Amino acid sequence: MIKKAEFVVSNSDPSKCPKPERAEIAFIGRSNVGKSSLINMITGKKDLAKTSQKPGKTQLINHFMINDQWFLVDLPGYGFAKVNVKVKEGWENMIKTYLTKRSNLCGVFVLIDSRLEPQKIDLEFLLWCGVNGVPAALIFTKADKQSKTKTNQNVQKFLKKTEEIFEEAPDYFVTSSETGFGKESLLDFIDELVKE
Ligand code: GTP
Ligand code: MG
Questions:
Q1: pLDDT at 85
Q2: Is the pLDDT of residue 50 over 80?
Q3: Closest by alpha carbon to 38, among 138, 123, 116?
Q4: Where do the coiled-coil regions begin and end (predicted)?
Q5: 5-195, superfamily in CATH?
Q6: Which of 38, 99, 164, 179 has its CA 20 to 30 A from that of 132?
Q7: Separation of 64 CA from ligand 2 center, angstroms?
Q8: Atom 24, ligand 1: which residue's CA is nearest?
Q9: Band of the pLDDT at 164, cuts 50, 70, 90?
């Protein structure tokens, strides 16, 4: 249960993030997949994280303090083709440095667009997480956009692909920031992660 959610700080340099003295959960995924919207949905604060119809909205590492207890982090997306190569590489380096160096990180949610067939870029990113020991779970977003049947088909296809990456199937959630679908089960899972 999230009773309080406050913005703390934005950083471009992972080493300048708040002292790693509290449990931390981060949201990552392709640009426009719905990371910031999901953060607003689970915290019940619709303007906490900035969202946009245009990909590339979130450009920094954004820390939020939850219940005066743990950090929730909104990250820029990967794979956004429309920014120049240098900027794109800069974001990707920042994200990868953050994900591998952040000592208090207890869970990383990789968001996947539930409307799409498995995408190479997401599978490659997950493989990178696996190789680097980043504790990844999956969230399939935008479930309100198509039928349950279609969502389930895409989810199953994606999970099948992850068998080539992980020995054990990753934990996964299906959500909609539009309807609030999936909020309870995701929050229960996060509660356990930040408790450990
Ligand atoms: P970047 O910060 O650019 O990487 O994007 P992001 O992953 O943070 O995505 P953001 O939350 O800004 O959402 C992108 C667009 O998708 C916005 O127009 C949102 O309103 C829309 N969106 C996000 N989640 C959902 C959802 O569950 N359902 C629907 N219908 N739209 C969604
Ligand atoms: Mg964002």
A1: 84
A2: yes
A3: 138
A4: none
A5: P-loop containing nucleotide triphosphate hydrolases (3.40.50.300)
A6: 38
A7: 13
A8: 34
A9: confident
